Amino acid sequence: MPQVLFKVDLTKPMSEQELVGHNRWHPDIPAVVSVNPGDVFRIECKDWTDGQIKNDDSPDDIRDVDLTVVHVLSGPIYVNGAQPGDILVVDILDIGALQGDEWGFTGIFAKENGGGFLTEHFPTAAKAIWDFQGIYTASRHIPKVRFAGITHPGLIGCAPSQELLNKWNKREAELVATNPDRVPPLAALPNPQNAVLGSLQGAEFERVAAEAARTVPPREHGGNCDIKNLSRGSRIYFPVYVEGAKLSMGDIHFSQGDGEISFCGAIEMSGYIDLHVDIIKGGMDKYAMVNPIFKPGPVEPRYSEYLVFEGISVDEFTGQQYYLDAHVAYRRACLNAIEYLKKFGFTGEQAYLLLSCAPVEGRISGIVDIPNACCTIALPTEIFQMDILPS
């Protein structure tokens, strides 16, 4: 087993760990450990809510989760020799659940507390607990379903430079200002409440907490991209914006569908990641890199039979026609799949949770045929312990 460089105690919050991680992005958060190019090591991670969700049948913890706490990340990891303008090469060698904590959860967040892709249709909190058996999982809350996971870090990335951080904060504040009272909000702006910033204390803590970016969205450095194919064997090329790169990770998912549509929509878990790192000097300029690039690994569930639902860019409430709007089209495809699954005994909430966490394939199938974009969501029929085909 690789050396564990960041270990977590699941009985303690991130702020009380032996090595304290972080839940904001800022270049001045100190690294907790350093590695050399070529090193192989293991990093342990808490679930993204820092243990707020329990293995029980009540959705109250999903309803009441404190989003100022998230996402708790393990790191930053300083990579010796990495300089701004380089590319950090990260290989995901292995990833899995921590021993004794082989379960996860999927949630629908209440509209007033984060919401989700279909929050206008499902505004109330709901939860499903999943039990792991090796590569497979099943839930007492969504019967007659069993599937293999494609385990991955929902969130992984390097620290931003101060210049890049300032750009994030400016553009996201301008977006929020267009509709400041929206529920849920258009973006999560810097908020010092419950900030965890590694070993920073005193005036430095206060300064960094006031301007550090929230971890909610993906950005130029990577971050919360929620890409299900970043699984075992994947190689990720990260742009380096600060000395040492300062790599961090967390939000491990046992499984997820394309889009993670319910927001807390993967099967969220604590876990470990085994990594190998290297550096490409001057790689950002050489390869015109702004955002990360990755090469998927060879290990993933091999489902061969799918039922595919289409959606077009026409609003389901008003019938308004949108111009090549992939967001609306994917929403319609998801809603069509949910209504279909309801005919087989699933509640709307169960179907919504399932589309969010099962290894479904989402596609922009057409983006040129004016005025309708066409998006599809492909549901593997083999995950069901019953026939769901039309007959």
Report on the architecture of this protein:
By secondary structure, this protein is of the alpha+beta class. 16% of the residues lie in helices and 30% in strands. It contains six helices and 20 strands. It has helices at 60-64, 162-177, 202-211, 283-286, 326-342, 348-357; strands spanning 4-6, 33-35, 40-45, 73-79, 87-96, 103-108, 126-133, 136-139, 142-148, 152-158, 218-219, 222-223, 235-239, 247-253, 263-268, 271-280, 293-295, 306-312, 361-366, 374-380. A six-stranded mixed sheet has the order 1-3-16-5-13-17, with no helix packed on it. Strands 2-4-14-10-12-11 form a six-stranded mixed sheet, with no helix packed on it. Strands 9-8-7-6-15 form a five-stranded antiparallel sheet. Helix 5 crosses helix 6.
